[in-house]
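Hi team,

Filling in the usual template for the complex we talked about on Friday. All components are listed, including any nucleic acid strands or ligand strings, so the model treats them as one assembly.

SUBMITTER: L.P.
PURPOSE: interface mapping
COMPONENTS: two
RESIDUES: 900
SEQUENCES:
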Amino acid sequence: MKFLLAASEVPEVSFTSDVGGGFNIILEYVWVIPLIMALSFAVILFFGKSLGSIKIGDSETPASSTIGIAAVGTCFLLSLWAGAAWIDHRDNFPEADATSVLEHGGDGEHSDDAEHSDEAEHSDEEGAPAYFDGDGAPLVDASVGGAGAAALVEAGEDGHSEVHASVAILKGFTWFQSGGHEFTVGILVDGPTILMLFVVTLISLLVHIYSTDYVHGDRRYTHFFAFLSLFTASMLFLIMSRSTVQFITAWELVGVCSFALIGHWWEEKPNSDAALKAFLTNRVGDMGLLIGMIILYFAAGRTFDIMTINEMAVAGEIPRNTLLIAALCLTAAVMSKSGQFILHTWLPDAMAGPTPVSALIHAATMVVAGVYMIARLYPVFFEGFAISGSSINALALIGAITVVFGGMLAFVQDDIKKVLAYSTVSQLGYMVMALGVGAWTAALFHLFTHAFFKAGLFLGAGSVAHSVHSFDMKKDMGGMRKFMPTTFKTFVICSISLAGVFPFAGFWSKDEILVGTGGWGLFGGSGGSNGAYTLMLVMGLVGAMLTGAYMTRVIYLTFFGEFRGHGHPHESGKRITIPLVILSVFAVGAGLLNLPPGFITGEEAGWQERFGHFIEPQSAAFPPIGHATPSYTLAIVASILGLLGPAIAVFYYFNRVEARSKVEGRSLTELPDGLTSRVPIAKAGHTLLAEKYYLDHLYTDVIAGGTKGPVADMADWSNKHLIDNVIDTAGRTAVTAGQFVYTKIDQPLVDGAVDGAGKASSAFGDELRKSQTGKVQQYAAYLFAAAAVLAGVLIIVI
Amino acid sequence: MTEVYLNQFLILAAVLFSIGVYGVLARRNGVMVLMSIELILNSVNINLVAFSAFRGTLGGEVFALFVIAVAAAEVGVGLALVLLLYRNSKTIDFSEVDAMKG
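RESULT (copied from the run log):
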């Protein structure tokens, strides 16, 4: 076997993906799903208003939202179909192919029997990790090292292009060619795609239904639903992108939609400012995305194909340093899109948009795009940051810092949505951290569970705000549990899930991330094939404490105490509460999809790690995913710490504040002589948090202001002295020149010439008209005379 | 039986053509002018048929047939024009018609 795939010489590597037709055919046609949403966008935008409203039962619904809901509902059903098809496809895929060694296409024209059998041996020796044996033992598949990668790059010895069987479905065509660069587009459907299809369409569907009530009677109702459709379409387009060009396009589309939706009520200055801030902050990261993707394009031998880039990264065909730079650039993109510390500042401001949009942005679409990008191009990060060998790297560090710093910011917010926004920042930190420490599955699993409880929390907050017409917990809320029992219950369930309490969904995913850090040799465990990230474990535990505590604060301020607002709040309608109930059901149960191995000892492994089994890409185009050994010890320690935070918050609010409220005779939101007003350090800390670490000041005053002032002065000076002078001189010169031209050139020469031409032609015409007698026979005479002359000429010449 | 030469036909055609040209230029009656045009066309037909016969090909005859057909159409249009001319200006004298004088 020769390894032909050198960096300079790239044999054509193609994949076959046979879904076997029939039921699974949807997997080849998933592109229909974003198409439906895009069509829905176009229809709503162009015809939404003129279609008026549709009468369903005894209530009138505007046609725009009905179209949107019908479209996204169809997409959801298609996604369910795709999910079922994927499970079937995945389970029926030959194990050897599915794990690491890609065989040459059995019946493809390039197949070579001798090589084929060689390959098969190969896979028996080193391929198929124990993980897929299905015997339920705790599994660490660290052995899937270079073998798979090596097998992948074995090009046919006669230089034939190679055909791999791939569990991922790949379809595509060349979009256009320009200067030798080929732009291919297509779909790449594998586990993460299917996962996101389900999450995006479900959350989007619920948000659509919720919105019909929430933005009912809004001045831009049609516009709102049009952009919800486009937003969903963009995200769906993003998750099935096959090439990086496609990915960037979708990424930017998502950004544009978020801009339009955050600034939905743009008449108010703060809203349009927030939209601009979101857009501009994202631009910072987008530069990183663009540069990173371009680096990858050239590094991978001029290809935009994500699979090829991944393969080459895994196979070590791209130099480590190139990958590191590319990964750092892409990390910048993740920091802006997924709200990682220090570029997270746009995210809380994005709360200016309507609440359903916040739910959509924070749970299913925009912010997880960054996480999804890492998951998609994981080999680049994995190899670039040397995740398997190190104990600290940029990605994990950024994630860990975000977990803690984001969580701390949530404590000082009075706006319920902003608390949730910082909570999202913190939770996204978990996902990025998980990816940074090599716990790929845990990150996507947390993305999955987080989507449900965070959407539930946002929609719940929206439900409360819809009722009291404010987001301010301290001024306008309090005691809401009496008025809104359903919202209260779902909100508490989602909060518990977010805080990671056993056995809610959040517990399983958070625990898996903490296990994945592998930094707990302390408790007698190991981090699978990856390094020991002790710092990340500590940060994650601190984050877990914070999460529970700030959610307790939100629940107390919103639902307990006495009502501090005005008017008579009441429970929201069915179109708001039903999505809440559905989401809280998922918030409770979604964690059961990925029970850790060995959780129910002695049982068949059939119900353990189902999520990982179906979601993890198993191919040579992916690094081995480390599975850490789970441990009861860590789960118990994490649970105790996770409950300690809320316990302190419960003691503070439900005991101290409640008692003080009774004494003072009014509903308090904090102790008037609490720690922050007595101890200087605590006060300073509070101010630091309230000012959001002064990051906004840094951006607007120091960076923007520092450059704006001098630049403005210089621009003003150059304007007055340079540009003004130049323009004045130019103006004067132009006037003089103009006058000269007018008197000396235009009037005598040009005018004279024009007049002369006119006069000459007039005189000539006068002469010529004499020949036009109007008599037919005279014309005939001319004709014959001319014919005679011509005949004469002909005779003479010949 | 006297010999027939090509020249004889050509001379006949030339004579007819000249008569036609004279008629077109000198006659004032519109109908007479049209008839003169017919003479010109027929002189051409004679030439075509004569050349064709002497060369032993059929092309000239076919062409002559086309000319006859076109001439019929031309006369139809021409007579219609003369008729309209009469209706509008009560004359078919071409020398009196000079509405297009420059």
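MY TAKE: The mean pLDDT of chain B is 90. Chain B touches chain A at residues 21, 24-26, 33, 94-95, 97-102 (CB under 8 Å).

Thanks, L.
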